[in-house]
What does this fold into?
Amino acid sequence: MNSIIEYLTGLDALTDQMIATDLLISAKSGIRNYAMAITETGHPEIKAILARHLDEALDMHEMLSTYMTEKGWYNAWEPKEQMNLNLQNINTAINLPTL
It folds into this structure.
């Protein structure tokens, strides 16, 4: 979307939220994949490499979830609040003007 239109419609912050959400989802997926891969390999060096990558993915998840929580975009400890936020985001997406 054009940055001027984003600013005028107030969607510039929403874009940041969407990017952060996509990164968080990717980090979660990576964590699951690394954990599964660790259990599937028998080679100690490969396990060590995968474990290091898993630790890095966990660190990234922690940074992203903290950032998003501070911004009010993620409420992992309050499911009802997170559901309300998700519904607001859905309504915003539905009501976006088409260009």
Summary: The chain has a mean pLDDT of 85. DSSP finds four helices and no strands in the chain. The longest helix spans residues 12-40. The two ends are 9 Å apart (CA to CA).
